[in-house]
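User: I'm putting together notes for a lab meeting next week and I want to include a structural view of one of the chains we've been expressing. I don't have a solved structure, so I'd like a prediction I can at least talk through. The sequence is below, exactly as it appears in our construct file.
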Amino acid sequence: MMRSWFFSGLLLHAATAIAADANGEFALKGAGFLTCKAYAEERARRSDVYYMIGGWLDGFISAHNKYAHDTYDVTSFESAELLLRVIDGHCKANPDDRLYSVINSLVTQLGPDRMQEKSVRVEIVEGRRKAVLYRETIGRIQTKLTQLGLYKATVDSAYTDATRSALMAYQSDIGFEMTGFPDQATLWHLLRN
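Assistant: Thanks for the context. Below is the predicted structure for the 193-residue chain, given as structure tokens.
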């Protein structure tokens, strides 16, 4: 279960446009016009509009990936649903913000940890749960767990039993269920805090 502190520390601010006309203006299309209040209402109802916003978000990220310098994928592990949850947390506290500004700011904040080059994707299956992560992200998980003194093996970017055990210890330390599975909440807490 996601706790309210899951969103703590996420301070969204307006980012400057990096591509536009000579005056810094550009045509905004679609869901970006919505206010945070409208977004939160549509999300609560799980309406068709909410699902269209999810598609708009995926398109926004794809366009960002194409046009941002040295970027293969700005989302190194984050799913659209995780990002929509983060946006929802911000929007509940800032109902008058425009969705475009919130999403643009979030993507800008993800930038320093982006995947700069293509990385092999690895499927991790534990019972009925499945995650697909970049090998580079698995290496980042191992590095972070090493820094925390929980991972003692070689950083090899493979999701091994040693990686799983270290992640279980981390989940225990932060009060999460000890699954050893690299779920979105665990990775957000480990790699974004």
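A couple of points you could mention at the meeting. Strands lie at 121-126, 129-134. The longest helix spans residues 48-67.

User: Perfect, that's what I needed.
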